[in-house]
């Protein structure tokens, strides 16, 4: 299972809530390219055309818009869950499930439930 984080996380310090969710789910953290470009996660965490192709059972995309270069790396996931406050984000075109809301509300609430 992958919990993948995108630019919606805003600041490096906010990554803590992503790692907390991944810990609660026994999942691995991956990301979109801007997170790696910012130096917040190493290159081997990047999913996409110029990153890794992944095929997990569950891929949770948090604050990721769903650009074609990102989708190229994760469209093979069995179940795609998107958390994005923009209902028109392209990630919802391929997501199996979605939560259209503020990730800063949703992610800690999910972590609490899974813990
Ligand atoms: C040649 C080339 C290769 C590339 N290779 C890759 C690649 O391998 N991997 C890759 O990922 N990208 C790649 N890109 C970049 C790609 O085009 C996108 O720019 C990138 O994927 C966007 O990352 P993102 O979704 O994290 O950011 P954004 O597109 O900025 O999306 C951020 C999303 O977060 C949401 N959001 C913001 N705040 C909140 C909040 N509080 N709560 C919930 N949602 C929120 C927004 O609605 C938005 O949809 C490549 C580009 C090029 C030109």
Structural account:
The chain is of the alpha/beta class. The chain has a single domain (2-9, 13-90, 106-114), classed as Rossmann fold (3-Layer(aba) Sandwich), CATH 3.40.50.1220. The longest helix has 12 residues, at 103-114. A 5-stranded parallel sheet has the order 2-1-3-4-5. The model has no long low-confidence stretch (mean pLDDT 98). It is globular. It has 5 helices and 5 strands, in the order βαβαβαβαβα. Helix 1 packs parallel to helix 5 (103-114). It starts with a strand and ends with a helix. Residues 6-8, 32-34, 46-51, 63-65, 67, 69-70, 73, 84-86, 89, 102-104 line the site of flavin-adenine dinucleotide.
Q: What portion of the residues fall into strands of 2 or more residues?
A: 15-25%
Computed over alpha carbons, the radius of gyration is 12 Å
- Low-confidence region ranges: none
Q: Which ligands, by name, code or SMILES, are bound?
A: flavin-adenine dinucleotide
H/E topology pattern = EHEHEHEHEH
The tally of beta strands, per DSSP, is: 5
Give the count of structural domains.
1
If you consult CATH, what is the topology? Rossmann fold
Main beta-sheet annotation: 5 strands, parallel
Q: What's the helical proportion of residues?
A: 25-40%
With strands numbered from the N-terminus, the spatial order across the biggest sheet is: 2-1-3-4-5
Averaged pLDDT: 98
Text of the CATH class: Alpha Beta
Count of DSSP-assigned helices: 5
Distance between the termini: 16 Å
Q: What's the CATH architecture name?
A: 3-Layer(aba) Sandwich
Shape: globular
CATH homologous superfamily - what is it? TPP-binding domain
Structural class by helix and strand composition: alpha/beta
